[in-house]
User: What shape does this take?
Amino acid sequence: MPSRLPTKSDFSPNLTLDIIPPPSGSNPINILILLHGLGDTQSSFSTLARNLNLSETACLSIRGLNPIPPIFTGSDVPAFHWGDDVLVDERRGEIDPDAGFEMVGSVLGGGVLKALTETCGFRAREVFFLGFGQGGMAALRVVTSKAFKGEEFGGVISIGGRLPGSEAEGGSEGKGNCRTPVLLCGGSRSSQITRSAVDAVKARFTDVEYVKWEKGDDSMPRNREEMLPLMKFLARRLRSRAGVPEGAVEV
Assistant: This one.
């Protein structure tokens, strides 16, 4: 079944998301799922998806599954997260991003990916993830779940998001067996993408590229130099119809 552009009716009505079609308007052969960071909404990543302007690629920018109560943010501005609960790291005095991802596995793995593959015609190899902070952790959680053991997705780009503790400490089962390529990005003084965090990802995945930015923090790319590794990763992995015989697809 040829892949088609998803519509909101393909997904649960409880899920808030934006669908960004390919710039050409043609049916996509790749799908990029964007997962925002802790305390944000899908809107900023919808803008990012349009700015990426990836040919033959549709984008889904999904809002975090749970709201953060204003008591934690100090503001009435809507803020969402991907964890099962809101946990506070008392040592740092901030919300802990590693708050359990069972709901993510159920909603994204069992709901969104099922709709993309069974209803919209995408193969796992054509599905990509780009997550920031806790959104990157959510993406890594989904592709390492037992439900997708042996599957190779198109790739995961995680900016400032490490492997959740439940996956990193899961023993020898699945170690080094996940074939989905990963691009892991972090600042030079990152509190999340530490050496042990990088080692944990490399222990679980067979293909990992780590980019350590000169800037200290794990913020989103701010210039061409910081964005270049992401675009190179996508250029290497995205499938295309360009330059191949009619009706065929480059693999």
